[in-house]
Each structure stands twice: as structure tokens, then as C-alpha cells.
Write a structure and sequence with these properties.
Layout lengths: L1 H10 L4 E7 L3 H26 L6 E6 L2 E7 L4
InterPro entries: Diguanylate_Cyclase, GGDEF_dom, Nucleotide_cyclase, Rev_trsase/Diguanyl_cyclase
Pfam families: GGDEF
GO molecular function: diguanylate cyclase activity
Length: about 80
Amino acid sequence: HLNEMARVAENEQQSLALLLIDIDGFKDVNDAYTHHAGDAVLKQMSHLLQNYVPKKTRIFRNGGEEFSIVLRDCSL
């Protein structure tokens, strides 16, 4: 998906930004409250990210507690 987004952005002469998010201490949540609780935290994080980013934005879970956010046509 990222390669395709980069190709489209280049063709349309748009900027592209990649944000990486890692939830520090997430292993402690799994250890203290079980993996079921950890899954609930990850789902909630996903919903929060989806609700607070622009519509052109793509959100990916990289694995574990890591997320990538790709912003198209944005100025920083």
C-alpha cells in the first residue's frame, strides 16, 4: 500500500508524510491484564487514530503495538 501511495503522490506532485507510532510499555499491559485486554487497547487506539486524522490519511498496524500513519498532500 505504501508504495502505491508514494507512486500516486509523485504522479500528482503531492507531499507524503510517514508517521510511526509505538506504544511504550505495552508489554506491561499484556502482562498485567492479559492479551485480551491488550487487544482491546489496540482496537481503541485504532479507533482514536481513525477519528482524529484527515480523510486522505491511511493507518496501518505494523504488528505488535506499532502503527504507521501516511498523510497525503499535507503541509507540516
